[in-house]
Amino acid sequence: MAAVLGTLAPVLVGCGGGDDDSDDGRRPSGEHVTIKVPADAPTISAAVSLAKPGDLVLVAPGVYRESVKISKARVTLRGESRDKVVIDGRLQQPNGVVVSAPGVAVENLTVRNNTQNGVLVTGSAKAAAGLPGQSGGYDTGDEPVTFLKSFLVSRVTATRNGLYGIYAFSAQNGVIEHSYTSGSADSGIYVGQCKPCRIVVRDNIAELNAVGYEGTNASGDMYVVGNRLVGNRVGLTTNSDHQEKLLPQKDAVIAGNLIADNQQAATPEQADGGWGIGVGVDGGSANRFIRNRISGNTNAGLVITATADIKPDGNQVLDNTFSRNGVDVGWTFPTATKGRGNCLRGNELRKTVPARLATTASCPRPAQSSSPSGTWTKPTAPGGIPFTEVAAPKRQPQFPNAKTTGATAVPAAPALPDPADIRLPSTSLLAAAARVLTS
User: Fold this and answer.
1) Which CATH number fits domain 53-311+379-433: 2.60.40, 2.60.220, 2.60.120, 2.160.20?
2) d(Cα 170, Cα 120) in Å, to the nearest integer?
3) How do the domains of the chain map onto residue ranges?
4) Is the distance from CB of 21 to CB of 29 less than 8 angstroms?
5) Biased composition, Polar residues: where in the chain (predicted)?
6) Is 0.85 topped by the overall pTM?
7) Is residue 96 classed as helix, strand or coil in its secondary structure?
C-alpha cells in the first residue's frame, strides 16, 4: 500500500476531495481526484479503498479477477472501455460489484461469471455479504429493511451471472440505464423490496435471460420505460413474493417498452418454468401498462394471475399494441384467490382469455368488480442451457468521453418520467430484434 500511495502522491497534492478534511495531510478538502487502475493502484479494489467521496476510479482495459465492494459515498467507478474492462468472477464469487453506499455510479464496464449477481446495489448488510440468494431472490430473515438511497448504473454489460445481471435490492432513488444484460439464470435486471422505490429503469436491453426484467415487491414511483426485452424466456414480470419484505407489489408504470419473442431456447431455465410470456403480473396491483409493443410471445403477451394468497387488483392495460402472440391478454386465477378491478382500454388486440375482455373489463372499472378468469393451451417449454453457455454479447455503445469526463454527480433523487410523454415503440424495432436473434 505504501508504494501505491507513493504513486498517488503527485496526483493528490493540491487537488484532493471528499467529505473528510484531509487524506493524511496529503489531500486538501473541496476538490476531487481521478485514481487510475492500474497506473495509480494495481486493482480496482485497491483504488476504491483510496477513493474519497466525489472521486473517480477510472479503469484501463483488462480482465480484473476480483469482487469490488464500494462502501464509500459518491464514488464513481468507470471503465475506459465498456467491452474491454471486464470484472470476471470466474464462477468463484457471488458478486462482481457490490454498492452499499449512496450516490455511487457504476459505468462503462462488463461484469461476468459471478455465481449470483453482476452488479448489486443494496442497503441490506446480508445481501451485501452475499449470504442469501442461493435459490433466487433474497430472504434476509429478521434483518430490518434499510434502504440505500441514490445510485446510478449506466452503460454496464452484465452477462453470464448465476442470478441477476443488475440487481437493486432494498434501494431507493436510483437509475439503471443504457445497460445490457444476458445469460442471467433468473433475470437480467431485478428491482426488489423497495417502497416507495423512486427508481427508473430505462433504455436497457435484456436478452437471453430467464427473465428480462423482474420487479418483486417494488412499489411506488417505479418506472420501467423504453427498454428492449427481447428473446428471453419471459420478457417482464412484476410480482409479490413472501420471500422478500414490503408485500404486496403495487404502483409501477411499465411504458414504451418493446417486449417481443420471449421464447428463446438457448437460455437458462427459470425456476418456475415460465416460457413464451411477454409480461406476467403475479399478485401485483395498481400497475399501469402503457403504450408497450408486445409481439411474438408464443404463450401470451400479457398475463395477470395471483399468487397463492395475494390477489392482483386494479391493474390497467392502456393503449398497448399486441401482435403475433398466442394469446394477447390472458387472465387466469387457478386458485381461490381472485383479482378485482383490473381493466383494459385503447389496446390493439386479437385474442383475449376470457374472450371480449376489452368490452367486459373496459376501463374505468369499479375497484371491487371481480376479474374474470379463463384458461388456454400453453406451449411446452424446452429445456434450457447453463448460464455459463449463453452466447457472448456483442459490443455495446460506449460512455462518451469516458477518459476525460469527471466523476458523475448522482442526484439525491432521479427525475421521474411523465407517462404522457412516452411513445409506443416503432414497428422497425421488431425487425431489428429479429436480426439480433438470428445473427
Assistant:
1) 2.160.20
2) 10
3) 53-311+379-433
4) yes
5) 362-378
6) yes
7) strand
